[in-house]
Amino acid sequence: METKHTPGPWTFVPDPNGVFGIYPNSVGGKFLAMTDTRANAHLIAAAPELLEGLKQCSSYLGEVYVFLSEIEATLEMSPDRFEEVCPTDLA
């Protein structure tokens, strides 16, 4: 997946008029956005970190889905096949 946004981290800077400008932390970073509330400025500045967290969650949920699909397939097996794959007598 190609990144199509300015890489983080981002920060915000208030101006004297109560407007918050959002900028990348990198030197020479260009203005990204503005908002008139501190809460929105925090949220916008956190966007790159939030995106990374969502990517990690998505990857994890994909693994959980595969695991649950395998369990479902195992439970749908005939009893004889289930015993072959998951022996109950481990002695």
Structure description:
The chain is of the alpha+beta class. The protein folds into two domains: 1-45, no CATH class; 54-91, no CATH class. 48% of the residues lie in helices and 14% in strands. It has a three-stranded antiparallel beta sheet, with helices on one face. It is rod-shaped and about 75 Å long.
Q: Hey, roughly how much beta strand do the residues contain?
A: 5-15%
Instruction: Kindly give the count of domains.
Output: 2
What strand order characterises the main sheet?
A: 1-2-3
Low-pLDDT segments:
none
* Termini separation: 48 Å
Secondary structure tally: strands: 3
Task: Please work out how many helical segments DSSP would assign.
Answer: 3
pLDDT averaged residue by residue: 84
Quaternary assembly: single chain
Global outline: rod-shaped
- Helical coverage, percent range: 40-55%
Largest sheet: 3 strands, antiparallel
Rg of Cα set: 24 Å
Please trace the helix and strand order, writing H or E for each element: EEEHHH
Derived from helix and strand composition plus strand pairing, the structural class reads: alpha+beta
Topology:
Layout: E1 10-14, E2 20-24, E3 33-35, H1 38-45, H2 47-75, H3 79-85
Antiparallel strand pairs: 1-2, 2-3
